[in-house]
Each structure stands twice: as structure tokens, then as C-alpha cells.
From TrEMBL:
This is Helix-turn-helix domain-containing protein. PROSITE patterns: HTH_ARAC_FAMILY_1 (PS00041), HTH_ARAC_FAMILY_2 (PS01124), PAS (PS50112). InterPro entries: Homeodomain-like_sf (IPR009057), HTH_AraC (IPR018060), HTH_AraC-typ_CS (IPR018062), PAS (IPR000014), PAS-like_dom_sf (IPR035965). Residues 175-273 form the HTH araC/xylS-type domain. The keyword Protein biosynthesis does not apply. It comes from the Bacteria. Residues 25-69 form the PAS domain.
């Protein structure tokens, strides 16, 4: 081998070594910066296998870094995230990211409100998901919170000629949920029907609606049916079984029990009392 070739080889090896050292330095710096971040960060393959976690992620789920790097997210107490991962990976790829809020149950049994961002990444033809989870320490007042924007049972006070106002909170990220209920409350619908219509799992939707309104999905369905029932009791002479069917109940007895539970009286008695008040 000539002296020139040996020299060139040494130069090449030195350059490779310098590049490797620089990459390792940048990688260490990246890990250091990520460990300074208070958000829990997971780097995950499309099959949900964990590739990297920061210190905050270890603290959140209660496992060491070594343990987590041998796991997939389905083995963690992150059911809400696994549901999103399985159902919406293609959406994440198309949109580039997905943001949602949910409740995380710690190993100690506490339920923490968290906001999660999943970002799609691709490097050298390989796909990754970067998951960032942040605990919601203090929520700002929102227009859809009941204590700031109470819903109104308007049927008792409005006149037949007045337009019926919506009972649902306005300006909410739950608009699609309430829109579906408004359009279908007079059908035999339940939690699963609403969840399917808006693209969420029943468990996730239950958490979402309860967190934003303090009530369940079924509560809002019943509440809307009760408003419609009161309107029909006031403005028509339909009998109770006709009204029950008109507002989405398959059995008159079910409607009767729920009406009495919500109003502490029967539909017949409520109608009689309201009409007496109207004529007095």
C-alpha cells in the first residue's frame, strides 16, 4: 500500500471518528434536554414498541427507563392512549399530529387530567410517533363548564311561540357530541351510538364529557328527552305512552320512572300543575 493511500485512509478514519463523536455528543445533548422537559415523552414505533423515554415518562408510569425500553405502550396503564394509537395511527400520519385530553389513572389509583400530543415522524424511511403527555394542573374557565355557563330548563318558562333554546353548553369541543344527541335523542340511542358517531371509544368519551360538563353522555340524552317531553306535555294533548315513544323511549314505564326521577312527580301531575299555573 502506498504512502498516499495510507494517508488518505487515516484521514478518512479520523473524519469518521470525528463525525461519530459529534453525533454521540448531539445525542447526549438531546437526551439531556429531553430529561429536563417536564412533559412525559415517549418515542414509539408504529407497532407501539417504545424506543425512548425521558425521566418524566418514567415518573408518570412508575417504571425505570430500562423496563420501559423492553415494553410496548399496551402494557402500561395508558388505555386511553392505546385506543387512540390503534384507531388513529393513519390519521396521525396524514395530519402530522393529534391532540386530545383524557384521564390517566396512576398506579396509586389517582385520576389525573392530562393533555396528550402525538406527532408523526419519519427518518430514513422509518416511521415513529413522538408522544408528549402533560398533566393539566389548573384548567382555565371555559364557556362549556356548567358553573360558568349553566344550561337552562327553558320549557317551563317559555311561551309556545318562542323559539326553543338549546340546553347544551355552547362553544364546546363537544359540539359534535351534542349535535348527534340533538338529531337523534328521539331514537333508541345510548353511549355506544354517540361514541361511534363521533369516532371515540365509549370509555374515552365518558371521561371527556364528564370532565367538561360534570355529567355523563346518558345524562345529556335523558336531559334532552325530558325537555322534549315537557314541551309535548304542555303544548299537546298526547297521552303519556305517545309522548314516551315520541322522545325516544321504547317502554312507557321507563319514561315514567325517569320523568319522576327528574321532576319528583309524574308526567300527568306535572302537566296538570303547569297548566293550572298558566291559566292563573
Amino acid at each position: 500500500m502506498s504512502r498516499t493511500m495510507v494517508f488518505d485512509s487515516c484521514i478518512s478514519e479520523q473524519h469518521t471518528y470525528q463525525v461519530t463523536q459529534q453525533l454521540e455528543k448531539e445525542l447526549r445533548l438531546t437526551h439531556l434536554l429531553m430529561d429536563c422537559v417536564t412533559d412525559a415523552v415517549f418515542w414509539v414505533k408504529p407497532n407501539a414498541r417504545i424506543l425512548y423515554v425521558n425521566d418524566a415518562a418514567c415518573s408518570l408510569v412508575g417504571y425505570s427507563r430500562e423496563e420501559l425500553l423492553c415494553m410496548s405502550i399496551q402494557y402500561l396503564n395508558l388505555e386511553f392512549l392505546m385506543e387512540v394509537w390503534l384507531q388513529h395511527w393513519e390519521t396521525i400520519k396524514q395530519k402530522g399530529s393529534l391532540y386530545f385530553e383524557s384521564l390517566y389513572k396512576t398506579q396509586g389509583g389517582l385520576s389525573l387530567p392530562v393533555q396528550t400530543t402525538v406527532t408523526y415522524m419519519e427518518e430514513d424511511g422509518r416511521e415513529y410517533g413522538c408522544i408528549s403527555i402533560r398533566e393539566i394542573k389548573k384548567r382555565q374557565p371555559e364557556s362549556f363548564q356548567l358553573q360558568q355557563n349553566p344550561t337552562l330548563d327553558i320549557v317551563e318558562t317559555r311561551k309556545p311561540s318562542e323559539p326553543c333554546k338549546s340546553i347544551f353548553p355552547s362553544g364546546s369541543q363537544l359540539n359534535q357530541v351534542f349535535k348527534f344527541i340533538e338529531s337523534n335523542y328521539n331514537q333508541s340511542i345510548g353511549l355506544r351510538d354517540v361514541a361511534q358517531a363521533v369516532g371515540y371509544s365509549p370509555a374515552y368519551l365518558t371521561d371527556l364529557v364528564r370532565r367538561h360538563t360534570g355529567e355523563t353522555v346518558n345524562h345529556w340524552i335523558i336531559k334532552r328527552r325530558m325537555v322534549a317531553a315537557r314541551t309535548l306535555l304542555l303544548e299537546t294533548d298526547q297521552c303519556v305512552n305517545q309522548i314516551a315513544e315520541a322522545v325516544g323511549y321504547q317502554h312507557e314505564g321507563h319514561f315514567f320512572r325517569q320523568f319522576r326521577q327528574y321532576h319528583d312527580t309524574t308526567p300527568h301531575a306535572w302537566r296538570k300543575m303547569q297548566r293550572q299555573v298558566a291559566t292563573s
